[in-house]
Amino acid sequence: MRNYHVVEWSPSQKCFHLQSYEEMIRDNLSVFKRGSMTDYLCIGIFETYEQASNYIHQLREMVRAGR
C-alpha cells in the first residue's frame, strides 16, 4: 500500500485532504506520539493520485447538489 493515496475529510475545517498512504500513517503516528488530536477521517484509499483527486471532485459535486 506504500504507493497508494488517501482522501481524508476534516469535519471541523469542512475540507478534504489528499496525501499518500505512507504520509497519512506517518502523520497519524506523529499525532499519537505528541498526545494531540486530529479530526481528519480517512474516507477513501486509491491506487493513484488521479483516482483520489477524482473522488474528491465527485464528493464536492455531491455537496453542491445537496446530497
Question: Could you characterize what this model shows?
Answer:
By secondary structure, the protein is an alpha+beta fold. The protein has one domain (5-64). The chain has helices at residues 21-34, 49-64; strands at residues 5-10, 15-20, 41-46. The longest helix is centred in the last third of the chain and has 16 residues, at 49-64. The chain is flat and about 40 Å long. The model has no long low-confidence stretch (mean pLDDT 95).
Described by strand count, sense and barrel closure, the largest sheet is:
3 strands, antiparallel
Strand order of the largest sheet: 2-1-3
- Distance between the ends: 31 Å
Q: Structural class given helices, strands, pairing?
A: alpha+beta
Whole-number mean pLDDT: 95
- Point out poorly predicted stretches: none
| Number of separate helices | 2
Q: Total number of β-strand segments? A: 3
Provide the β-strand percentage band: 25-35%
Q: What is the percent of helical residues?
A: 40-55%
Count of separate structural domains: 1
Morphology call: flat
Q: Compute the gyration radius: what is it?
A: 13 Å
The ordered string of helix (H) and strand (E) elements is EEHEH
Quick structural summary:
This protein has two helices and three strands, in the order E-E-H-E-H. The chain is an alpha+beta fold and 67 residues long. The protein has a three-stranded antiparallel β-sheet with strand order 2-1-3.
Describe the structure using short key phrases.
flat, 3 strands, alpha+beta, 3-stranded antiparallel β-sheet
